[in-house]
Amino acid sequence: MVEITIRKRPRTEAVVTQRKFFKKTARGKVIKVLRERYLRDDVCCGIHSCSICADSASSVLPSAGSLNHPMFPDGHIVLPDTNVFLAQMDLMESNLFNPPMILLQTVMEEVRHRSLPLYNRLKALVKADEKTVWVFYNEYRSETAVIREEGESPNDRNDRGIRKSASWYNTHISLSRLPVRGQAARPLPMVVLLTDDVANRQKADKEGIQCVSVRKYVESMKDSGKLLDLLSTPGSDDVEPTKAVAARQVLYPDYLPLSTLLAGIKSGHLHQGHFNANQYNYLEGNVSVSGFDKPVLLIGRENMNRAVQGDIVAIEVFDESEWKAPADEVVDQETTLKNDDAEESEEESDDKKTIAERRVLQAGFSKPQASAKQPTGRVIGIIKRNWRSYVCHIDSSSLTSSNATSLSQQTVFATPVSRLLPRIRLRTRQAPTLLGQKILVTIDRWDRTSRYPEGHFVRALGNVESKEAEQESLLLEFDVPYRPFGKAILDCLPSEGDRWVVPPKSASSPEWRDREDLRDLVICSIDPPGCQDIDDALHARPLPNGNIEAGVHIADVSHFVLPDNPMDNEAAARGTTVYLVDKRIDMLPALLGTNLCSLRPRVERLAFSVIWELTPDAEIVNVRFTKSVIASKSAFTYEEAQIRKDDPNLNDDTTQSIRLLNSLARKLKAGRMAAGALNLASPEVKIQLDSAESSDPIDVAQKELRETNSLVEEFMLLANVSVAGKIQGAFPQTAVLRRHLPPPRSNFEKLQDILQKRKGIPLDVSSSAVLAASLDKCVDPSEPAFNTLVRIMATRCMLSAEYFCSGSVARDTFGHYGLASPIYTHFTSPIRRYADVLVHRQLAAAISYSPLHATLHSKAHVERVLDVVNRRHRMAQMAGRASVEFYVGLALKARGERQGSTEEAFVIRTFRNGLAVYVSKLGIEGLVTFKREIQFDPDAYTITIPSSDESTTIAVFDKVSVKIEVEKDKNTQRGRVKMTLISPVDSRNL
Amino acid sequence: MSSRIEILNDGGYRSDGRRQYELRSIDIDMSPQGTADGCAVVSHGLTQVQVCVFGPREARKRAETLHDRAVLNVEVGVLPFSAGERRRRGRADRRILELAASIKSTFEPVIQTSLYPRSQIDIFVSVLAQDGGLLQACINATSVALASAGIALGDLVCAVSGGVHGTFPLLDLSALEEGDLPNVTVAITPRSGKVTLVTLETRLHVDRFGEVFARACEAGRVIHTEMRRAVRARTSKLVDAMGAGTKGTGEEDVERDVLMSEINDF
């Protein structure tokens, strides 16, 4: 029984407890807002064994404070101001910075108003195990609540509130530890206000509150060297006066104020969109905005005006006479700006550089533009920065002294791994030691006077090309959460651990409630070799009436992962398991993923089964869904299953079941293809690792596809479609589904044009069925790989599939374009995809097995979860691909040491000074650049290389052979694949 | 924007500094207003409602009288300045009619109408200020006003609103919380333990309903003690003023009475 009380709010306190203000809505209406607040005396101070505060059981702050700081020998507790969190979050998050900390409610709310991402980091910080942070709700405590005074700005009010809390804490501590007579008075710990606001510090000094700036505090700490680098640049202002900032040349136009931008966007003369940098040309970027079919092109630094990949920017579109086509040239930041100096001496190098850049830009413009023009524009303001931490290398050429022991502060360049980002200027004392390492860097600001953004060092990841560093940098770059699972999450696992088994069948056991006993069925699983998380298994058997019963059994993850517990929340945040070449980042703890939920052979496991009755022609007669207990008879790899199926000597139950499944799968596939499903291709290669321990790649091979791959795929598709129909019927508002929107026609225009011009093959894209048929016709008898290449290029023109909540979009957009299915979802891999877990829960509710959790009734909640899952899914794919790329690089290097590697490649794009080629054997794309002038025909997609005897023309889709080498960039340590043309012409000396 | 305000923060505080099960400050004023037979101004936090009761008296229209019991007539007026947005609501406004109907149906079984045949009891509700929990305030004020008018009641009716944030039940919602959370209003007669009204205008999951409902019923009893205290204080003040009451301060009496009533009630 809980205690219900009435909080009294005496009239006499109304001045403090009641607030009235007027606000104007977007429509211009004035609304009166009345708020009250209840001040209380039971807000706990959080100091351990405090004699005044009643419930100090949960208190975290040590009663003596921290004794580790030389400035405060009597012990202290830190009370940071808002600006500390806004500017120095990396410092606060560092493991080395862990004094006991009081976080005021005022500070939290201020951070929340200023930046939501920072607020989320702050919240994570409060919960972190290695930090001692106490949140003090000062606005609700009667002694520390403040009200805004006449003429006081909200900022000043908050500062005053923070100071008031600080002084309250100090009196509170002295009151709670009154000196005992006869004993020497113990020194009292001090609450120290940590702030970078000079005005606030002065006021605090006047009021007698101990306060200190962040830099000063950190400088006198023990590990100051490492921590000082974490300080972001604004904090350094008062220490070293910067060199005559005003005198520096303004390089970029100023941003317009936000209100002007918003008004402009509303009125339609400005546009808002995400800024996308061009990975081939650092002087070019584009922004997709509604109102223009093609993205708006931003050419040149001034027009891009300090926008960084991912920022939401406001742009102004130029007059149509200034519209241009994108440059056809590859411009590399490193080569063009190699000699740029990281120190502030902009003026000298300025001329040379701008000239070089101008030449590049001019070259692009002067040439007659026959191909379609794109709108151009310039950035005139930033709506929202989307800066995060970037993985970078230190540019060795920017170092002034590479003496390894030098601890002097230097300004260096950090080159991000991603080609989409500008170099970041960085001040550090550890530059020599960081050379040759991957480091994490955060951008702090980008001034008008600075050519490059300024940032600070966050932490080192490890040596370049060491697998750990590469792995971690991949995970960071794609924002994959990879921390080990915390205690709260592991506590949600069954207490028996790996000894958990399905209990013996009995009516009373909760596991067996409403479960079918399918342990006698001949069920087997077919997976890739080495698969540990087996989440699906199959069976088929003939029925007496001539039909066939086929079943798909999926691990019953939702039995273990209950809604809304820490494990569920973590899984929802991770969204998906990420597969790198040599590592798997699990969505669920390994105990579940690889053991309790994994449908391992000859072990009883809980499952969620979809069982069809199919006619021999694979028509569905009947389908049912049930929770079950199964015991898989065997686990095959694709290869084993294939061999077993093809071996005429084998006739046991399992083999017959596989044959039966296979015959059905073929019919299902035929049916699907007839309905217009696309057979797409993506470059998939397999890295062969030497051995499990060393994980040195030895070779790269194309993935082989067998009949049994298709067998499993067909049944999974069938299960997904059946389940999608069921949950959509049961929960029309909140069903978790997956769709693939048909691509807009314009996406195919370029590919159609190339195909028509180069090969004379028309491509009809009016529907998925027609496209499938027309892709089948794209064959070059002399070149079998050509068809695959076209499929890959067609796949790139399409949109990506996404999860959605059925109530949030129109019914007619549910379809899955690629699969040509009117409805689809993901049900079959709950161990590695969170959407499947949600689908399991909904299906369980749809068959009345268990009630649906409250959160799955809320459309808003489902949408929010799916947004995260969609993003994670995309990131996981990219991380996986990047990991393969890295290993391909390593393999090439290993191969290159033995002999130079020459491969056949297809030209997929032509530039004015180079070619983009695709090496199908390795699944990689590369760039061949020519230093010499060549003739380029953008309309025919050809380049012509003149030479003394005869000139050679190379066109898109031509087969060339390239020499592939891995070359290490001396400056950035970035190992990268370098390709040179061998035939038809040797480009090594071009 | 309301999305910027946390309904229930990690420290367990709501946006106005209350905890989950803390009700807002209640103020009950029973001083007479004009010619009304009974009246009360009740405020829950910043929601304030005035109720005037006339009757039992002869009905204006003969046709509406019932020969065996009294007729209830409830009229609700919402003052234009009561809410954030200044708006004049007509008498025929749907929401107001519904409010009146709920008040009427809440009190019909509680007022012993059969004691007053062929008469009419008028209840005029005016909403002075709104900050969530309008229905609860109306019912509580009507309850007290009826008591002050001396009309025979089976019991005082006590109403409380409750909502659910995630899986946490909250009691006595402010306007801010009401806009964000599914909420119920429950009115009980604490002496008999009966529930005379449950309204749910939003969607609330069945699994959550039970707990909120139970909490709201408990909170109803807390409000009941508060109401009795107010009624008792008012009465003893009147008795003192007549100079014919018992000696001793009213306060002590009130305290004892509260204890007694708790023994009776539970």
From TrEMBL, chain A:
Molecular function terms from GO: 3'-5'-RNA exonuclease activity; endonuclease activity; enzyme binding; RNA binding
Localization per record: Cytoplasm; Nucleus
Residues annotated as domain PIN: 76-202
Domain RNB: 515-849
This protein's GO CC annotations: cytoplasmic exosome (RNase complex); nuclear exosome (RNase complex)
Recorded family membership: Belongs to the RNR ribonuclease family.
Protein name, as recorded: Ribosomal RNA-processing protein 44
Organism: Wolfiporia cocos (strain MD-104)
TrEMBL record, chain B:
Pfam families hit by this protein: RNase_PH, RNase_PH_C
Superkingdom as given in the UniProt entry: Eukaryota
Keyword Cytoplasm set for record: yes
Entry keyword set: Cytoplasm, Exosome, Ribonucleoprotein, Ribosomal protein
Subcellular location, principal: cytoplasm
PANTHER family cross-referenced by the UniProt entry: EXOSOME COMPLEX COMPONENT, EXOSOME COMPLEX COMPONENT RRP41
Protein name, per record: Ribosomal RNA-processing protein 41
Native organism: Wolfiporia cocos (strain MD-104) (Brown rot fungus)
Lineage, broadest ranks: Eukaryota, Fungi, Dikarya, Basidiomycota, Agaricomycotina
